[in-house]
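Narrative summary of target 7.
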Amino acid sequence: MSRPLTLPAGLEFLADPTLVFGLLLLALLGIGVELVHPGALVPGIVGLLAGAAAIVGLVALPLDPIGLALVGAAVALFILDISIPSHGAVSLLGIIAAIAGGWLLFRSPGVNPIALLGLPLGMGALWVTASGRALAVRHRPFPQTPNELLGMTGVIRERAAPLGLAEVGGELWRTVARDDSTLEVGSQIEVLAQDGFTLIVRLTGPPAPSLSSRPAAAVGRDR
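Modeled conformation, tokenized:
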């Protein structure tokens, strides 16, 4: 174990195992996000600042290298989870590694038990949510060119009178009927043409009872 040093006046508050543990997780996670998404800047800057503060605190505390390695492994597992479809299993291993690392990281006084469990669980939950959305966007098929839209069918999600929203190919698009008629929510439509980000459609079926009152989904291609 490393021998702790005495911090200069004004920095003693950093010699807190719970604070250092939180800063360490934040630093590694921020830098990891920056590596996965180069150019994001904010995660990297936050990670570097948290890392600098964590290092200052680490030199003033009795440190166990095995605990530090486990915390680093935890963040590596979180980052790995966004690259493979593990359905959160890899992040779960990361949470376990973070808890074990925090428990071993310092001698008495150690990390506050609530923080020891809460920080990794909170970080893991946020990361699983974020990585799940990123993977969903990455693997979601959607039309790339106007030609792919022609002939596709969809459903009106917001009443078109004459302009509304329709779900086509898993995305919401601005929609107008070819004859400028009103299209009710739930109406079945077919794409005839595309004008920029607006689809020109024709009615192919009346609203289904189960769809007529369904609220619009999050806008994808609505511009």
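The longest helix spans residues 113-139.
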